[in-house]
Design a protein that fits this description.
The protein is α/β, with parallel strands linked by helices. The protein has helices spanning 13-20, 26-33, 43-58, 64-76, 88-94, 102-115, 128-136; strands at 8-11, 38-42, 79-82, 122-124. The mean pLDDT is 94.
C-alpha cells in the first residue's frame, strides 16, 4: 500500500524508546521519526514503553519530570496506535524459527500480518534478534 506520503513503518518498543530516552540508537531513531510516512505502534509496544518508562523512574534513572516529558513526546509524536493482534496463521508459521522472546515474537507476527495489506512495510527495531528475523522474513533493512 503506497500511502503517498512516505514509508509505512511499524515501530517496536525499542525503536520508540530510542526517540524518547537518549541511547546508542537515538540518532537513527530520530532520523526515522522525522520522516513523512505512516508510523505505526501496537498496543503491545505501548504497554512495553509505559512499563520501561515507569521502571526507569522507579529506579531513579529518570526523574518524574523527564518521564512526563517522554510521555508527552510520545503522545505528540507521529505514531498511529494499532489495536490489533497478529493472525494465528502468522504466529503458527513463525513458531520455532527464530527463538525470539514473547513480545518480539508477537511484534514479528503482527508485522507479518500487516504486511499482507501493506507490502512495503518496514519493521523498525533496535533489537538485534528481531531485526535479523525480520530481514529473513523479507522486511527491508531500515538501518
Amino acid at each position: 500500500m503506497d500511502t503517498g506520503i512516505g514509508p509505512s513503518i511499524y515501530w517496536d518498543a525499542s525503536a520508540v524508546l530510542s526517540t524518547l530516552v537518549r541511547d546508542s540508537h537515538s540518532d537513527a531513531a530520530l532520523k526515522w521519526v522525522q520522516k513523512e510516512g505512516l508510523h505505526l505502534v501496537s498496543t503491545m509496544a505501548y504497554a512495553e514503553i509505559l512499563a520501561v518508562l515507569d521502571r526507569m523512574e522507579k529506579e531513579r534513572i529518570l526523574t518524574k519530570v523527564l518521564t512526563e516529558s517522554a510521555l508527552q513526546a510520545f503522545a505528540e509524536g507521529p505514531w498511529r496506535f494499532l489495536t490489533l493482534c497478529p493472525a494465528r496463521e502468522q504466529i503458527d508459521s513463525l513458531r520455532g524459527k527464530y527463538f525470539l522472546r514473547g513480545a518480539d515474537f508477537w511484534h514479528l507476527s503482527l508485522a507479518r500480518t500487516l504486511k499482507k495489506e501493506i507490502p512495503d512495510l518496514i519493521l523498525l527495531s533496535f533489537n538485534g534478534k528481531l531485526t535479523e528475523a525480520a530481514k529473513k522474513e523479507g522486511f527491508p533493512s531500515p538501518l
